[in-house]
Amino acid sequence: MAPKKKEYSTDLRTLVIKHFLNGDSQREIAKKTLLSRETVRSMIKKYKSTKCIGNLFGRGRKRKTTATMDRLIQRKLKCNRRKSSRSVTAELQNHLGILISESTVQRRAHEIGLFGRVARKKPYVNKINRIKRLKYAKEMLTKPLGFWDNIVWSDESKFNLFGSDGKIMVWRTRNEEFGPKCTIPTVTYGGGSVMVWGCFTKKGVGKLYVLDHIMDALYYRQILEENLLASVNKLGFDNNFIFMHDNDPKHTSGLVKDWLKKNGIQVLQWPSSSSDLNPIEHLWDALENRMKKHHPKNKEELAMLLVNEWEKIELSVLKTLVSSVPNDINNTLASARFVSSISSTISRSLEYDESSQVNQPSSFDILDFFY
């Protein structure tokens, strides 16, 4: 296929035609406009045949699909976001007798803002836990803003001695993929790691406890005995606080429940599989980012640096995290409304445009294709 010729602006074409109408020769026009004689000849020839200076409307290849076919393709992709363009073209050909290319399907998707991207990974939440999450979100949405100021958020997290479990971005060329400056050295099992327990409120961070062995219910109760009450007293709370921990079996064991009840500690009812609603997860990320400037040589040094950086976390960071909780709850409800609206939209969108005069499949074929 020959390369596309350079297309000149409408102003330049207009200038050439004006000189032509004034009686100038093609040689004179080419000299005045700094164009070749062949280009001037082509512009004049086009003007004589079309009486038009600009491009004619409808030039180029005609659209392969009709408006109804476009809606069919787009609806199919909206209903199943994992469906490939190849499978859509195969279904169109097998069920409706429509032969189009995969590129056409991709272009129709681009027209409504759908582009092929790598799917983001997030924890799986089953139907029962989704209902619990929605119930929690609706209950918490009615709480006043000051309610979140009295929550003591807690959780455990792991920090690797050698490298991070997350992604590290680098600038490199195509040939530097395995260059020393563009790679992250790794060792088996991360070279060792440190598990910590921590808590925080809007008023500040509590104690960061470094675990020295695998945690069970008895060890978790010991951690709470030695750190939770001390952290609460440090932050200036009396008994007017609500303790938050997730539904890990160690957290919900009878030993821990009895200790919390004995000490009169109120616990926030937490839905399962909802770590995204816990602001301390973002605090762990902030702590890991602060640790990137350090290069500990052993687990003892790593634990010491973690405690030091934990104590340096600014109050403004904590206030921002706590104030973001209502927004996270609103996003949970918005996601649920979006899913329900998609279901209703699909049922309403099964309309067939019979006004087009192009040979189109019957409504029965469309329903068979869609379902």
TrEMBL record:
GO terms for biological process: DNA integration; DNA transposition. Residues 151-302 form the Tc1-like transposase DDE domain. It holds the Pfam family DDE_3. Residues 70-140 form the Transposase Tc1-like domain. InterPro entries: Homeodomain-like_sf, RNaseH_sf, Tc1-like_DDE_dom, Transposase_5, Transposase_Tc1-like, WH-like_DNA-bd_sf. It comes from the Eukaryota. One of its GO terms (molecular function) is DNA binding. Gene3D superfamilies: Ribonuclease H-like superfamily/Ribonuclease H, Winged helix-like DNA-binding domain superfamily/Winged helix DNA-binding domain. This is Transposase. It comes from Rotaria magnacalcarata.
